[in-house]
Amino acid sequence: MKLVLVGADHEVTGSCHYLEVGDKHILVDYGMQQGIEVFERAPLPVAEAMIDYVFLTHAHVDHSGLLPLLYAHGFRGQIFTTDASADLCSIMLRDCAHIQMMESEWKKRKAKRGSDIPTQEPLYNMEDADGVVKRIVSCHYDQIIDVCENVKIRFTDIGHLLGSASIEVWLSENGTEKKIVFSGDIGNKNQPLLKDPIPTREADFVVMESTYGDRLHGAAQGDYVEELTGILKETFDRGGNVVIPSFAVGRTQELLYFLRKIKVGRLV
Ligand SMILES: [Zn+2]
């Protein structure tokens, strides 16, 4: 049995962990690095084509964004994730491929016109995204899934994003069983649209997200609806338009939820 920390272990994006049990090679998440890469991620311990399974905690790109690259490099195994994460990945991984192809084209066009912006091939293309999405196995929360003879998993709702999960992994080798829990990104309590995170009670080892270090999230939350209503009202009264840049899955859904709440309540 082996656990290797591959990515997001000094920083907060590019999450990836590698497990080995018997002759099986497993990844937990395979996320894209976002922003400046401060710490170089460790290489995968085996070639991509040798990976048998991926267990995906949730659809955010810093946890899932390199899955099409895995496919481009020969991975043809299975990706286990929750139903909602599977739905989101189907949209988001294709969107990632689209963005990369567009950016690459844009840089090539600029270079032709004499710009010194370096050209860049996309990491992967739409075929890779389509191919990897077909490898996804949708799973329900709270059910023990026999992945293969020596590996069992269970997804628990962790309240971070629709479909987000902690993954309990039971590995057996030479008559010994160990349980490793991958927390995934952990949500807060009392969030709109999401259930409260469910704690996992026991484990031999825990690999846990610690993005916020020792900061406490318990403090009273601002009244988003009231604040947003005020901004909208003030702008509309002046005859203006409100432009909201939104890019993060989860945050955008939250915002739409609040806007609907305001509309239904006819607060504006
Ligand atoms: Zn996340």
Describe this structure in words.
- The chain is α/β, with parallel strands linked by helices.
- It folds into two domains: 2-207, Metallo-beta-lactamase, Chain A (4-Layer Sandwich); 224-264, no CATH class.
- 28% of the residues lie in helices and 23% in strands.
- The protein contains six helices and eleven strands.
- The protein has helices spanning 61-64, 67-72, 83-112, 126-133, 224-237, 251-264, and strands at residues 2-7, 16-21, 24-30, 53-55, 78-82, 136-139, 145-148, 151-157, 165-173, 176-182, 205-207.
- It has a six-stranded mixed β-sheet. Strands 7-8-9-10-11 form a five-stranded mixed β-sheet, with no helix packed on it.
- Strand 1 and strand 2 form a beta hairpin.
- Helix 3 (83-112) runs antiparallel to helix 4 and helix 5 (224-237) crosses helix 6 (251-264).
- The mean pLDDT is 90.
- Residues 58, 60, 160-161, 185 line the site of zinc ion (ZN).
> What is the spatial order of strands in the main beta sheet?
1-2-3-4-5-6
Question: How many individual helices?
Answer: 6
Question: What fold name stands as the CATH topology of the largest domain?
Answer: Metallo-beta-lactamase, Chain A
Unique ligands: zinc ion
Question: What's the CATH class label of the largest domain?
Answer: Alpha Beta
Q: Which range does the strand content fall in?
A: 15-25%
Shape descriptor reads globular
Unreliable stretches: none
Structural class: alpha/beta
In whole angstroms, the N-to-C terminal distance is 59 Å
How many structurally independent domains?
2
